[in-house]
Amino acid sequence: MFKIFLDHQWKEFWRGRNKAGSLAAKIFMMIIYIYFLLIALGVGFFMKGFLKEIFPAAQPVAIFNGLVLYYFLVDFLLRVQLQELPTMSVQPYLTLNIRKKTIINFLNGKTLLNFFNLMPLIIFLPFCFTEIASVHGTPAMLGYIVSILSLTVFNNFLLVYVKRKATGNIMLIAIGVLVVLILGALDYFGVISISDFSNLAFRSITKQPALALIFTAAAAVIYSINYKYLYNNLYTEEMVKKEAEKTATDYPFLNRFGEVGQLAALELKLILRHKRSKSAIMMSFAFVLYGFFFYRAELLNNNQFSLMLFAAIFMTGIFQIAYGQYMFAWQSAHFDGLMANKINFKNFIKAKFLLFTIAATLVTMLTFLYGFMSWKLIVLHFVVFLYNIGFGAVIVLFFANYNKKRLDLSKGGAFNWQGVGATQWIMSIPLIVIPFLIYMPFGMANEPFWGLTAIGLFGLVTLSLREMWVNLLTKLFAKQRYKIAEGFRE
User: Fold this and answer.
1) Residue 248 has pLDDT above 50, yes or no
2) 3-state secondary structure 399-464
3) DSSP code of 388?
């Protein structure tokens, strides 16, 4: 039966409307995958040398033990953003004489065939075959291999389950990322140590290799949870019911904004129903961790905000960057119908501003957790938040009027360059450069907090002028809408 499913999917691909474009994209992605897999292979075979060079005073096996769980924690975060659920049109098979168990096993089995499940094997197994086997013997090596395979399967099915449950409920993704963020913060401040726990777990496996089966049991449990979820929901009636529920979804807190709130609610529904638009929200939460790469104690102690400004702009404004750069292309499939309806263009633009403000507020509140590192980061994020909702949103919507490339919302966001053009790159220049230009004179005068104050005041002033920006952008949109619609038809 699996062979028949694969044969149907093969035919579906070659008979698709955009076969040439899909084939070119797959070949390009295959080249990228091979490139990263070769790098991973190099890391795997030369890991002992790398570890000795980075940690000369420590034993390579001890460092390796401490890094394994760290890897899988980061792996899960990357999967949230980049791994897509495997697609298969299930409904036609549900009415045929095919056991539901067979369909579910195929769907679950197909999730294992992805780049993220191959990476840990290529990175870790060479080290296990060489170093672990020579230091602790063959039984310990087998225990490590079983553990790594089990953790890979566990991450895969945990991600699949979370994403399936998060359909129409993006808060589950947000909660998952928040839990990982809190674990990272607790580790950073020394409350807990993921590295020590990982080291303890794998040192125990070297002594008792059978303990590796604990990870196997965890993988089996999450697989059975996935199986049960699909078994209980794989009905035509259930699919229709869920679609009807999703169509009737309402957001009462937006009703207070009248027509603007209704338009924002419609766009929010669009975001939650399509792969690529949902990836913009996932990215917003995933990149909250971006600060850990930029915020260092020496920068905070010396008030070197110029070196942290980029990360702050990126984190607090990631939604309007990731989602807003394709405005109005998200609605390209029904743009003609939208323009034919009796919609007030001014309210249409205001709805975009409202969506940006809500998203930026939620993400900025999440970044306030960096206040545990230093109160200065709360100040930094707040002034950049004012800039993003005050002037950053204006820049994004201005350049959106010159983006005429159509988007296919059924495609995932990972490594998808459809709709990307010169407009996106040009937009990023003023969006990022202007805060630096405002801050620069104060930074050179060794008055960093006055520089932050200037950015915040600029954001407040531009925010107070929002009505003016709305009027200007409405006129521009009214002028450009025919060119935009023509571009979306191509």
Assistant:
1) no
2) HHCCCCCCCCCCCCCCCCCCCCCHHHHHHHHHHHHHHHHHHHHHHHCCCHHHHHHHHHHHHHHHHH
3) I
Q: Could you report how far apart the first and last alpha carbons of the chain are, in Å?
A: 40
Instruction: Report d(CA 401, CA 352) in Å as an integer.
Output: 13
Task: Count CB atoms within 10 A of the CB of residue 56.
Answer: 7
Q: Do 157 and 108 form a contact (C-beta atoms < 8 A)?
A: yes
Q: What is the pLDDT of residue 242?
A: 45
Q: Do 213 and 321 sit in the same domain of this protein?
A: no
**Shared domain check, 241 and 271:** no
Task: Give buried/exposed letters for 377-409 (b at 16+ CB in 10 A, else e).
Answer: bbbbbbbbbbbbbbbbbbbbbbbbbbbbbebeb
Question: Is residue 140 located within the same domain as residue 203?
Answer: yes
Q: Is-contact 454 442, C-beta < 8 A?
A: yes
- Tell me: cis bond preceding 328? Omega within 30 of 0 counts: yes
Domain count within the chain: 2
Task: Tell me how far apart the alpha carbons of residues 335 and 325 are, in angstroms, rounded to a whole number.
Answer: 17
Structural domain boundaries, residue 124: 18-245
Whether 57 and 193 share a structural domain: yes
| Amino acid at position 445, single letter | A
DSSP state of 342: -
pLDDT digits (tens, 9 = 90+) for 321-339: 877 777 777 777 777 777 7
Using the Cα atoms of residue 361, residue 363, residue 368 and residue 369 in order, give the sign of their dihedral.
positive
Mean of pLDDT values over 249-260: 67
Q: Check whether residue 185 and residue 235 sit in a common domain.
A: yes
